[in-house]
Amino acid sequence: MIIRKEEPGDIALIRDLTERAFAPMPYSDGTEAPIIDALRRDGDLTLSLVAVDGGLIGHVAFSPVTIEGVRNWYGLGPISVELSRQKQGVGSALVAEGLARLRDIGATGCALIGRPAVYGPMGFRSNGQLSYRGVDPAIVQFITFGDEPTGALRFAPAFDKDTAGT
Ligand SMILES: CC(C)(COP(=O)(O)OP(=O)(O)OC[C@H]1O[C@@H](n2cnc3c(N)ncnc32)[C@H](O)[C@@H]1OP(=O)(O)O)[C@@H](O)C(=O)NCCC(=O)NCCS
Protein backbone atom coordinates (compact mmCIF):
# COMPACT_ATOMS: atom_id res chain seq x y z
CA MET A 1 0.00 0.00 0.00
CA ILE A 2 1.21 3.48 -0.76
CA ILE A 3 -0.16 6.75 0.57
CA ARG A 4 0.16 9.81 -1.61
CA LYS A 5 -1.51 13.12 -2.36
CA GLU A 6 -4.59 13.01 -4.56
CA GLU A 7 -4.07 13.50 -8.27
CA PRO A 8 -6.68 14.78 -10.76
CA GLY A 9 -7.40 11.21 -11.91
CA ASP A 10 -8.37 10.23 -8.34
CA ILE A 11 -11.21 12.71 -7.92
CA ALA A 12 -14.06 10.59 -9.28
CA LEU A 13 -12.70 7.50 -7.48
CA ILE A 14 -12.59 9.41 -4.17
CA ARG A 15 -16.21 10.43 -4.68
CA ASP A 16 -17.29 6.83 -5.35
CA LEU A 17 -15.27 5.42 -2.43
CA THR A 18 -16.69 8.00 -0.03
CA GLU A 19 -20.25 7.21 -1.11
CA ARG A 20 -19.68 3.46 -0.71
CA ALA A 21 -17.97 3.75 2.68
CA PHE A 22 -20.56 6.05 4.23
CA ALA A 23 -23.65 4.40 2.71
CA PRO A 24 -24.09 1.82 5.53
CA MET A 25 -23.39 4.35 8.30
CA PRO A 26 -26.49 5.36 10.30
CA TYR A 27 -25.01 8.83 10.98
CA SER A 28 -24.40 9.54 7.30
CA ASP A 29 -26.74 11.79 5.35
CA GLY A 30 -24.91 11.31 2.08
CA THR A 31 -23.27 14.74 2.09
CA GLU A 32 -19.70 13.53 2.65
CA ALA A 33 -18.66 13.20 -1.00
CA PRO A 34 -20.14 16.61 -1.96
CA ILE A 35 -18.32 18.14 1.02
CA ILE A 36 -14.97 16.95 -0.37
CA ASP A 37 -15.83 18.44 -3.77
CA ALA A 38 -16.91 21.71 -2.11
CA LEU A 39 -13.68 21.88 -0.08
CA ARG A 40 -11.67 21.40 -3.28
CA ARG A 41 -13.72 24.02 -5.14
CA ASP A 42 -13.38 26.51 -2.27
CA GLY A 43 -9.61 26.08 -2.03
CA ASP A 44 -10.02 24.60 1.45
CA LEU A 45 -8.77 21.09 0.71
CA THR A 46 -5.43 21.65 2.44
CA LEU A 47 -4.42 18.02 2.20
CA SER A 48 -6.13 15.14 0.39
CA LEU A 49 -4.39 11.80 0.72
CA VAL A 50 -5.24 8.51 -0.94
CA ALA A 51 -4.23 4.96 -0.01
CA VAL A 52 -3.56 2.82 -3.06
CA ASP A 53 -3.15 -0.94 -3.11
CA GLY A 54 -4.09 -2.28 -6.50
CA GLY A 55 -6.86 0.34 -6.64
CA LEU A 56 -7.79 3.27 -4.47
CA ILE A 57 -8.77 1.82 -1.06
CA GLY A 58 -8.74 4.84 1.25
CA HIS A 59 -8.97 8.59 1.40
CA VAL A 60 -8.70 11.34 3.98
CA ALA A 61 -9.30 15.08 3.71
CA PHE A 62 -7.90 17.84 5.91
CA SER A 63 -9.11 21.44 5.83
CA PRO A 64 -8.63 24.58 7.92
CA VAL A 65 -10.69 25.03 11.09
CA THR A 66 -10.97 27.93 13.48
CA ILE A 67 -10.88 27.79 17.25
CA GLU A 68 -10.68 30.99 19.27
CA GLY A 69 -7.21 31.57 20.65
CA VAL A 70 -5.28 29.05 18.55
CA ARG A 71 -3.79 29.30 15.07
CA ASN A 72 -3.01 26.87 12.28
CA TRP A 73 -5.45 24.15 13.24
CA TYR A 74 -6.93 21.74 10.74
CA GLY A 75 -9.97 19.48 10.65
CA LEU A 76 -9.83 15.82 9.70
CA GLY A 77 -12.57 14.46 7.49
CA PRO A 78 -14.26 13.04 5.65
CA ILE A 79 -12.24 9.81 5.86
CA SER A 80 -13.15 6.60 4.08
CA VAL A 81 -11.71 3.13 3.72
CA GLU A 82 -13.06 0.54 1.31
CA LEU A 83 -15.47 -1.74 3.20
CA SER A 84 -13.47 -4.90 2.50
CA ARG A 85 -10.28 -3.21 3.79
CA GLN A 86 -11.59 -1.69 7.03
CA LYS A 87 -10.12 -2.58 10.45
CA GLN A 88 -6.76 -3.45 8.88
CA GLY A 89 -4.92 -0.24 9.73
CA VAL A 90 -5.53 1.67 6.49
CA GLY A 91 -7.39 4.52 8.23
CA SER A 92 -4.70 4.79 10.90
CA ALA A 93 -1.97 4.91 8.24
CA LEU A 94 -3.78 7.69 6.34
CA VAL A 95 -4.23 9.71 9.53
CA ALA A 96 -0.61 9.25 10.66
CA GLU A 97 0.69 10.35 7.27
CA GLY A 98 -1.71 13.29 7.21
CA LEU A 99 -0.69 14.48 10.67
CA ALA A 100 2.99 14.26 9.76
CA ARG A 101 2.41 16.30 6.62
CA LEU A 102 0.32 18.85 8.52
CA ARG A 103 3.12 19.32 11.02
CA ASP A 104 5.49 19.90 8.11
CA ILE A 105 3.34 22.84 6.98
CA GLY A 106 3.18 24.35 10.46
CA ALA A 107 -0.06 22.93 11.87
CA THR A 108 -0.43 23.23 15.62
CA GLY A 109 -3.37 20.86 15.96
CA CYS A 110 -6.03 18.77 14.29
CA ALA A 111 -9.66 18.27 15.34
CA LEU A 112 -12.51 16.04 14.25
CA ILE A 113 -16.00 14.88 15.11
CA GLY A 114 -16.07 11.11 15.35
CA ARG A 115 -16.24 7.96 17.39
CA PRO A 116 -13.65 7.70 20.18
CA ALA A 117 -13.39 3.94 19.53
CA VAL A 118 -11.95 4.72 16.10
CA TYR A 119 -9.92 7.87 16.77
CA GLY A 120 -8.72 7.21 20.33
CA PRO A 121 -6.31 4.51 19.13
CA MET A 122 -5.03 7.00 16.54
CA GLY A 123 -4.07 9.42 19.35
CA PHE A 124 -7.08 11.72 19.43
CA ARG A 125 -8.80 12.71 22.67
CA SER A 126 -11.48 15.05 23.96
CA ASN A 127 -11.13 17.50 26.84
CA GLY A 128 -14.72 18.62 27.35
CA GLN A 129 -13.64 22.20 26.57
CA LEU A 130 -13.71 22.10 22.77
CA SER A 131 -17.29 22.36 21.52
CA TYR A 132 -19.08 21.89 18.24
CA ARG A 133 -22.71 22.87 17.72
CA GLY A 134 -23.93 21.31 20.94
CA VAL A 135 -22.83 17.78 20.06
CA ASP A 136 -21.59 15.47 22.82
CA PRO A 137 -18.14 16.88 23.78
CA ALA A 138 -16.80 13.31 23.93
CA ILE A 139 -16.94 13.08 20.14
CA VAL A 140 -15.21 16.46 19.64
CA GLN A 141 -11.66 15.14 19.54
CA PHE A 142 -8.26 16.55 18.74
CA ILE A 143 -4.51 16.12 18.68
CA THR A 144 -2.59 19.21 19.70
CA PHE A 145 1.03 19.96 18.87
CA GLY A 146 0.85 23.03 21.10
CA ASP A 147 -1.83 24.69 23.21
CA GLU A 148 -4.86 22.95 24.67
CA PRO A 149 -7.94 24.01 22.62
CA THR A 150 -11.01 25.51 24.30
CA GLY A 151 -14.12 27.10 22.86
CA ALA A 152 -16.09 26.64 19.67
CA LEU A 153 -14.70 24.63 16.77
CA ARG A 154 -15.69 25.83 13.29
CA PHE A 155 -15.12 23.87 10.11
CA ALA A 156 -14.68 25.30 6.61
CA PRO A 157 -17.85 26.61 4.90
CA ALA A 158 -18.19 23.39 2.85
CA PHE A 159 -19.31 21.66 6.06
CA ASP A 160 -22.07 24.16 6.76
CA LYS A 161 -24.37 22.13 4.54
CA ASP A 162 -23.95 19.31 7.06
CA THR A 163 -23.71 18.94 10.81
CA ALA A 164 -20.90 16.40 11.00
CA GLY A 165 -17.19 16.91 10.64
CA THR A 166 -16.20 13.45 9.55
C1 LIG B 1 -13.67 5.08 10.02
C2 LIG B 1 -12.75 4.38 9.04
C3 LIG B 1 -12.14 5.39 8.09
C4 LIG B 1 -11.60 3.71 9.85
O1 LIG B 1 -10.71 3.13 8.93
P1 LIG B 1 -10.04 1.71 9.24
O2 LIG B 1 -9.03 1.45 8.20
O3 LIG B 1 -11.12 0.73 9.43
O4 LIG B 1 -9.35 2.02 10.65
P2 LIG B 1 -8.16 1.22 11.33
O5 LIG B 1 -8.15 -0.21 10.84
O6 LIG B 1 -6.90 1.98 11.19
O7 LIG B 1 -8.64 1.21 12.83
C5 LIG B 1 -8.40 2.30 13.72
C6 LIG B 1 -9.03 1.96 15.05
O8 LIG B 1 -10.43 2.09 14.92
C7 LIG B 1 -11.07 0.90 15.34
N1 LIG B 1 -12.26 0.72 14.50
C8 LIG B 1 -12.31 0.74 13.16
N2 LIG B 1 -13.58 0.57 12.75
C9 LIG B 1 -14.33 0.45 13.87
C10 LIG B 1 -15.71 0.28 14.11
N3 LIG B 1 -16.59 0.16 13.10
N4 LIG B 1 -16.14 0.21 15.39
C11 LIG B 1 -15.27 0.32 16.42
N5 LIG B 1 -13.94 0.52 16.25
C12 LIG B 1 -13.48 0.56 14.99
C13 LIG B 1 -10.05 -0.17 15.10
O9 LIG B 1 -10.30 -1.32 15.90
C14 LIG B 1 -8.75 0.52 15.47
O10 LIG B 1 -8.53 0.51 16.85
P3 LIG B 1 -7.41 -0.48 17.49
O11 LIG B 1 -6.09 0.03 16.94
O12 LIG B 1 -7.56 -0.28 18.96
O13 LIG B 1 -7.76 -1.84 16.99
C15 LIG B 1 -13.49 3.28 8.25
O14 LIG B 1 -14.09 2.40 9.16
C16 LIG B 1 -14.57 3.83 7.33
O15 LIG B 1 -14.32 4.15 6.17
N6 LIG B 1 -15.83 3.91 7.81
C17 LIG B 1 -16.94 4.37 6.97
C18 LIG B 1 -16.90 5.86 6.78
C19 LIG B 1 -16.87 6.56 8.13
O16 LIG B 1 -17.66 6.24 9.01
N7 LIG B 1 -15.96 7.54 8.27
C20 LIG B 1 -15.70 8.26 9.50
C21 LIG B 1 -16.85 8.58 10.33
S1 LIG B 1 -16.44 8.88 12.08
Structure description:
Pfam families: Acetyltransf_1. Keywords: Transferase. With 166 residues, the chain is of the alpha+beta class. The protein has one domain (2-161): Aminopeptidase. The chain is built from 4 helices and 8 strands, in the order E-H-H-E-E-E-H-E-H-E-E-E. It has helices spanning 11-22, 32-42, 90-104, 116-119, and strands spanning 2-5, 47-53, 55-67, 70-81, 109-113, 130-131, 140-144, 151-154. Strands 1, 2, 3, 4, 5, 6, 7 and 8 form an 8-stranded mixed β-sheet that branches. Helix 1 (11-22) packs antiparallel against helix 2 (32-42). The chain is globular, with a radius of gyration of 15 Å. The protein binds coenzyme A. Coenzyme A is lined by residues 21-22, 25, 79-81, 86-92, 114-115, 117-118, 121, 166.
The CATH topology? Aminopeptidase
Major sheet, described briefly? 8 strands, mixed
Structure summary, number of beta strands: 8
Structural class, by secondary structure, is: alpha+beta
What is the first-to-last residue Cα distance? 23 Å
CATH superfamily: Gcn5-related N-acetyltransferase (GNAT)
The unreliable regions are none
Supply the CATH architecture.
3-Layer(aba) Sandwich
CATH C-level name: Alpha Beta
Number of domains: 1
Mean pLDDT: 95
Oligomer: single chain
Q: Percentage of helical residues?
A: 25-40%
Tell me the fraction of residues in β-strands, as a range.
25-35%
Bound molecule kinds, no repeats? coenzyme A
- The 3D shape can be described as globular
Order of helices and strands: EHHEEEHEHEEE
Q: How many helix segments?
A: 4
